[in-house]
Design a protein that fits this description.
alpha/beta, Rossmann fold, TIM Barrel, seven-stranded mixed sheet, five-stranded parallel sheet, 11 helices, 26% helix
């Protein structure tokens, strides 16, 4: 047997990621016994409802299970399993749980139930002898958007769990500065009695500054030089709005923000043969050197206004970046350090999907997780999961969403501004101590996160943390029911009932505990 007791003796933690438990039916009794003697088991996806699971039922806190499956909608957090999640309901429109119809023992500690009136137990933990089991009773937490849930479930297995995080909040404004359309927009004119240019200068900008000041944001903006469809040289400035470019860019820099590169125009870097631009009705580039000339022109253009700025951040147009262009970009933009596209794949757009990581060519990949003035329920789900996994908030908006009836869903600017404000209020109350950074500062945080390797030993009195690859500071989330009392070579603050944010200031850190909370 692959899970005989003597094989399991050397194992601390077991995670199941499949549903066909009949494959290990003969091992389940020995797995249960292993847990009883101190093993930790995470069942990361709901298993098939067959007789094969019966040896585990009492161990995982299930008193009884009916036949078949129960279908439910959404999730409701009973505990602060993720930062800011307690009491929140997510996903009634996109999380369709298929769960075992269970009744649980009173001792089971339930963290998530379904978001509908059924209140089906979705995630709980149960002590069994000297060990612990965490049970995920749904098949819905398998995507990249649910990684925070999986990491949180894993963190429940031990009395103390410590893992590295990035700890950064970065707010991007795409297509900014960029030429402002001439003329009027009916809805804007009706509400503010101003043309488009007057609206962005006198209404939108002061409102965004107010939001920036309220939440202490540092705007990371990426510029567009013009909106021509030209994919052949000469690439030159034709928009004739130098004063506006200088004005917007100057305000961003004055307030501690950053100006990066988006595009000479708004055409993704893909060749005709890639077949990508055609899908979104963009013209295709016919020459690699033309793409390179266009981004070099944008770089020159930014420097002509702000000679001290070295653009280090590139955001692909429409978050699309073809493989060949990704390879040559660092050579063409001498100061490039960061590429910021998207974290989550999109079924409709062949986007450049990233992880938070240091790429093999030294570029830091810093994806954006959420977007828009009015993030929907799915984006909030993605955001709360990323707070739990990386302690990161990475968001982008486009100024001209205000003018686009599809993207603004028929809402007024006043309403859009309020929804964005409420979203940021929720994020910043969920994530105390999160650092507002520019994109290039966020990238430096990713580099430190990617390079540090933590080793730790914990007992009831203290945790001793030793860090390989430590540079000048490192951040961690720590989950424990014990109460941290003092930290040597670091500092700690409480985020939620049992979640703490730890800053390590040296490669050896000691966290002392003062008993149960």
């Amino acid at each position: 047997s692959q899970f005989s007791l003597n094989k399991l003796e050397k194992t601390e933690t077991l995670i199941t990621t499949f549903i066909e438990f009949n494959q290990i039916e003969n091992d389940l009794s020995s797995i249960a016994e292993w847990v009883f003697h101190g093993g930790k088991l995470l069942i990361a996806i709901r298993p098939d409802n067959t007789a094969s699971i019966s040896p585990l039922l009492s161990a995982v806190g299930i008193r009884s299970v009916d036949s078949g499956y129960v279908i439910s909608q959404g999730v409701e957090f009973i505990s602060p399993l993720l930062p800011g999640a307690a009491g929140q309901i997510f996903g009634n429109s996109f999380i369709n749980n298929s769960s075992l119809p269970v009744a649980l023992d009173r001792e089971a500690d339930i963290h998530i139930i379904s978001g509908d009136e059924q209140g089906i137990p979705i995630l709980w933990d149960a002590d069994y002898g000297d060990g612990k089991i965490v049970f995920i009773n749904t098949d819905q937490f398998i995507g990249k958007d649910s990684r925070g849930i999986i990491s949180a479930a894993y963190s429940l297995l031990n009395p103390v769990t410590i893992y590295p995080v990035i700890n950064s909040a970065v707010f991007f404004i795409d297509d900014f500065p960029a030429p402002i359309p001439e003329g009027t927009d009916k809805a804007i004119f009706r509400q503010f009695n101003r043309d488009i240019k007057g609206f962005f200068l006198n209404i939108w900008l002061p409102d965004m500054q107010e939001i920036q000041n309220k939440f202490k944001l540092k705007f990371s903006v990426v510029a567009i030089e013009n909106y021509t469809d030209s994919v052949k040289p000469p690439f030159q400035f034709t928009a004739g709005q130098e004063d506006i470019f200088q004005f917007f860019g100057g305000f961003i820099l004055r307030d501690g923000g950053e100006i990066g590169l988006h595009g000479y125009n708004h055409i993704p870097f893909c060749m005709e043969g890639d077949g990508i631009n055609q899908l979104l009705e963009y013209p295709s580039w016919t020459s690699e050197s033309h793409m390179q000339s266009s981004i070099s022109e944008l770089n020159r253009f930014i420097l002509s206004f702000f000679p001290d700025v070295k653009p280090q951040v590139y955001v692909p147009v429409s978050n699309i970046l073809c493989k060949d262009a990704r390879e040559w970009l660092p050579a063409v933009i001498p100061d490039l350090r960061v590429i910021a596209s998207v974290y989550l794949p999109d079924a409709e757009v062949p986007a450049y999907v990233q992880e938070f990581e240091e790429a093999s060519d030294g570029i830091i990949e810093f994806p954006r997780i959420t977007s828009g003035y009015m993030p929907n329920d799915y984006m909030k789900w993605a955001a709360v999961n990323e707070l739990g996994l990386h302690y990161v908030f990475s968001h982008f908006i486009h100024p001209d969403d205000v003018l686009d009836s599809y993207r603004n869903q028929g809402s007024s600017w006043t309403h859009m501004r309020k929804v964005l404000n409420d979203f940021l209020l929720w994020i910043y109350s969920a994530a105390p101590g999160i650092r507002n950074l520019t994109a290039s500062q966020g990238a430096m945080a990713v580099q430190r996160y990617a390079r540090v390797i933590p080793n730790y030993e914990c007992d009831a009195k203290e945790c001793r943390l030793s860090l390989e690859g430590f540079y000048d500071s490192a951040w961690f989330l720590l989950r424990t029911q014990m109460r941290p009392q003092n930290v040597v070579n670091g500092s700690i603050s409480r985020i939620a009932d049992d979640i703490y944010l730890l800053e390590a200031k040296a490669e050896n850190v000691i966290i002392g505990f003062g008993g149960q909370p």
